């Protein structure tokens, strides 16, 4: 892996790494640290037939489902907990039968990425035993056989050859691309995540290509002063994009909180139906000419300051959540 | 619990005080979003100060100055012993066997405490789609015991769940062992009407107590399966001290307790 300049623009990153039918995973968890600026740029550029792998995505997967560009999701949960659960475009798409899906538990979905990161074809676990996640598959065997990138089975039950215990074998996931939003990245690609890492470290290690969008790009010398605080080595990162506030409206620990005001706007549009949601996409993405204009549109410096994290806490205790 | 009982409380407040009593001191508790967060914080402030709150998104023993709105919330990080990610919690704490009690909820629960949080109707073309398992299926399979918090309505207490997301006692005695589970199972179901527990021999749900102002008959007419009510007492109400903590310290914003 070259140490050559990996820093590119948001537009270039989407153009270079995203294509029709890409199998993709996004970092973050429900209402936190999703690469939302990257996702909005994906919608702006347009694509189709995405396959999304994740554990508990929220608005990141839901906005793409609402934009009509997702073919399949293989996840454990799609929702934003306090704000909306389940996410409404996801719910509608499943009820209308317009996307394919597969249900795993959060641990199961995480383990598939862990197996991918370990370079193994599958991984055993004791979770999901006795549930319909073991008994029922959302994605049919025929559909799996027709998609060379899909796992041949959802999962397999096995008797452990050493103990006789029943275990579930889960197929590894190696997404074509993982997109992670981090607080800090070095110029060569070393990644530092503050707060919970969710499954981002495994997701990046499982993926074939990794794009990191970051609040701050710093020198490698600086980020390597405390290498024990870094979670993804530079050589696994293919592209770096500087996007301050790039997780909005989701939270970014140590930098800013989630934005309940924007969640209210989003959720109202997503609940109102696919036509109303198209208007949301036009107003907040298609007709917004640049990333900086988006930050102005959500309220500019005033709103961003309201959401800014208290450095002693990592979040903003005064943000109005209800 | 010492202290004066209150007469002026909401149903949600009653439910979280009952849920909080399910936590014993020094236990390791797997906490999900909503009422379980409120209940586990209340337990720490009252009878279980040494209990350990674990959130699936990566934190162990959070100090929780402010109520989180998500199990991945930055608010879970404050004062935590360690802060990593889902693999650390699910694999090395939950699957490894260190969770004493986990909290669960869902859209449907059957007589054996099996829960559905995935779909209503046919799985492949559902009438209603819910968010899915999240960590619930994992907590149900791998905790030493689980506590269920539910709304009590007939359609939510069916004879059979439409989809089994989180296994309870599966199909009765020996049900968990038969599917390969090595520990766990539900011990109580706390609803807006009463507290149910499970018969040790039959693994069937029975009514342990009905909330003040709710009759046993009301509970039966909101439950599709048979429920033994013969030993049911009246639920102990919240104390003045508990309500003060809930309203002024734990959830002053009314995130989960606003009626």
Outline:
The complex is a heterodimer of chains A (322) and B (259). By secondary structure, chain A is an alpha/beta fold. Chain A has 13 helices and eleven strands.
Describe the structure.
The complex is a heterodimer of chains A (322) and B (259). Helix content of chain A is 34%, strand content 18%. Chain A has 322 residues and is α/β, with parallel strands linked by helices. Chain A has a single domain, classed as Glutaconate Coenzyme A-transferase (3-Layer(aba) Sandwich), CATH 3.40.1080. In chain A, the strands form two sheets. In chain A, strands 1, 2, 3, 4, 8, 9, 10 and 11 form an eight-stranded mixed β-sheet that branches. Chain A has a three-stranded antiparallel β-sheet with strand order 5-7-6, covered by helices on one side. In chain A, strand 10, helix 9 and strand 11 (239-242) form a beta-alpha-beta unit. In chain A, helix 3 packs across helix 4, helix 5 packs across helix 8 and helix 10 packs across helix 11 (274-286). The mean pLDDT of chain A is 97. Chain B has a single domain, classed as 3-Layer(aba) Sandwich (Glutaconate Coenzyme A-transferase), CATH 3.40.1080.10. In chain B, 24% of the residues lie in helices and 18% in strands. Chain B has helices at residues 11-21, 35-45, 86-95, 136-142, 175-179, 216-221, 240-250; strands at 28-30, 52-55, 59-60, 82-83, 101-104, 108-109, 115-116, 119-120, 128-129, 145-149, 186-190, 194-198, 205-210, 233-234. In chain B, the strands form three sheets. Chain B has a ten-stranded mixed β-sheet, sandwiched between helices. In chain B, strands 6-7 form a two-stranded antiparallel sheet. Chain B has a two-stranded antiparallel sheet with strand order 8-9. In chain B, strand 8 and strand 9 form a beta hairpin. In chain B, helix 2 crosses helix 7. The longest helix of chain B is centred in the first third of the chain and has 11 residues, at 11-21. Chain B is globular. The model of chain B has no long low-confidence stretch (mean pLDDT 97). Chains A and B meet through helix 4, helix 5, helix 6 and helix 8 of A and helix 3, strand 9, helix 4 and helix 5 of B.
């Amino acid at each position: 892996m070259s140490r050559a300049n990996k820093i590119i623009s948001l537009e270039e990153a989407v153009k270079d790494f995203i294509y029709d039918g890409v199998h993709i995973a996004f970092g973050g968890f429900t209402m936190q640290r999703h690469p939302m600026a990257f996702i909005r740029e994906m919608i702006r550029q347009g694509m189709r037939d995405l396959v999304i792998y994740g554990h508990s995505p929220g608005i990141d997967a839901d906005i793409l489902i609402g934009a009509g560009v997702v073919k399949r999701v293989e996840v454990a949960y799609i929702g934003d907990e306090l704000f909306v659960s389940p996410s409404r475009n996801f719910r509608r798409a499943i009820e209308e039968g317009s996307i394919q899906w597969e249900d795993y538990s959060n641990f199961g979905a995480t383990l598939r990425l862990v197996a991918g990161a370990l370079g193994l074809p599958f991984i055993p676990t004791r979770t999901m035993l006795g549930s319909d996640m073991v008994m029922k598959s959302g994605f049919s065997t025929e559909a799996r056989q027709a998609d060379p990138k899909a796992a041949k089975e959802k999962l397999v039950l096995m008797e452990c050859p050493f103990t006789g215990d029943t275990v579930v074998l889960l197929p590894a996931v190696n997404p074509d691309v993982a997109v992670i939003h981090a607080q800090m990245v070095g110029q060569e690609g070393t990644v530092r995540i503050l707060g919970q890492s969710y499954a981002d470290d495994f997701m990046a290690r499982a993926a074939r290509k990794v794009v990191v969008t970051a609040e701050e790009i710093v020198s490698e010398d600086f980020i390597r002063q405390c290498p024990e605080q870094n979670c993804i080595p530079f050589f696994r990162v293919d592209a770096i994009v500087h996007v301050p506030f790039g997780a909005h409206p989701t939270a970014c620990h140590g930098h800013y909180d989630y934005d309940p005001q924007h969640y209210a706007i989003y959720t109202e549009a997503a609940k109102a139906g696919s036509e109303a949601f198209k208007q949301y996409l036009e107003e907040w993405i298609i007709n917004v000419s640049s990333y900086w204009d988006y930050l102005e549109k959500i309220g500019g410096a005033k709103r961003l300051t309201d959401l800014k994290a208290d450095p002693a806490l990592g979040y903003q205790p005064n943000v109005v959540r209800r | 619990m010492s202290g004066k009982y209150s007469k002026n409380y909401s149903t949600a407040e009653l439910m979280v005080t009952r849920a909080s009593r399910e936590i014993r001191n020094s236990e390791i508790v797997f906490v999900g979003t909503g009422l379980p967060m409120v209940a586990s914080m209340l337990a720490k402030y009252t009878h279980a100060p040494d209990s350990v709150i674990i959130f699936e998104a990566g934190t162990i023993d959070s100090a929780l100055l402010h109520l989180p709105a998500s199990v991945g919330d930055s608010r879970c990080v404050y004062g935590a012993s360690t802060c990593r990610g889902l693999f650390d919690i699910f694999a090395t704490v939950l699957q490894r066997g260190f969770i004493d009690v986990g909290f669960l909820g869902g859209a449907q629960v059957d007589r054996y405490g099996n829960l559905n949080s995935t779909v209503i109707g046919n799985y492949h073309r559902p009438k209603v789609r819910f968010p899915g398992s999240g960590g619930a299926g994992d907590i149900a399979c791998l905790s030493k015991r689980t506590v269920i918090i539910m709304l009590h309505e007939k359609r939510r207490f069916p004879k059979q769940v439409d989809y089994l997301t989180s296994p309870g006692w599966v199909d009765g005695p020996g049900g968990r062992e038969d599917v390969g589970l090595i520990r766990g199972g539900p011990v109580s179901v706390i609803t807006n009407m009463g507290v149910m527990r499970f018969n040790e021999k039959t693994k069937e749900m029975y009514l342990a107590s009905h909330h003040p102002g709710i009759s046993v008959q009301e509970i039966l007419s909101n439950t599709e399966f048979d429920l033994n009510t013969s030993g049911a007492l009246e639920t102990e109400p919240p104390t003045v001290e508990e309500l003060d903590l809930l309203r002024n310290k734990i959830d002053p914003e009314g995130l989960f307790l606003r009626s």
